[in-house]
């Protein structure tokens, strides 16, 4: 899976160093993945929340942070749409970001 864009994650973990290892781990796993659909992704990430239009919310560092990723399984691409604290997440519309 091609992840766009790692820079978004990198910029975030520079500000929030306590989640750097978790974000790096998520990135490596996503990059190596061969997910063909949401069901395959949920097998590896059962706590991930499914939103509309192939958006998935991942809990990072014990749910201290939220990561929203939009997937195109047909092209093996995913886009980082949002990374933030739980309180920042509560202020956005996760289905539209």
Describe what is shown at a glance.
With 97 residues, this protein is an alpha+beta fold. It has helices at 6-15, 20-32, 38-44, 86-90, and strands spanning 2-4, 49-50, 55-60, 65-72, 77-85.
Describe the structure.
This protein has 97 residues and is α+β, with helices and mostly antiparallel strands. It has four helices and five strands, in the order βαααββββα. It has helices spanning 6-15, 20-32, 38-44, 86-90; strands spanning 2-4, 49-50, 55-60, 65-72, 77-85. A five-stranded mixed sheet has the order 1-5-4-3-2. Strand 2 and strand 3 form a beta hairpin. The longest helix is centred in the first third of the chain and has 13 residues, at 20-32. The chain is globular. The relative contact order is 0.20.
Q: Unreliable segments (pLDDT under 50, ≥5 consecutive)?
A: none
Beta fraction: 25-35%
Record the strand order, biggest sheet. 1-5-4-3-2
The whole-number mean of residue pLDDT values reads 95
The helical percent reads: 25-40%
End-to-end CA span: 21 Å
Q: Work out the radius of gyration.
A: 12 Å
List the total number of helices. 4
C-alpha geometry: globular
Order of helices and strands: EHHHEEEEH
* Classification by helices and strands: alpha+beta
Task: Write the SSE topology.
Elements: E1 2-4, H1 6-15, H2 20-32, H3 38-44, E2 49-50, E3 55-60, E4 65-72, E5 77-85, H4 86-90
Parallel strand pairs: 1-5
Antiparallel strand pairs: 2-3, 3-4, 4-5
Helix pairs in contact: 1-2
Keywords:
alpha+beta, five-stranded mixed β-sheet, 97 residues, 29% strand, single chain, 36% helix
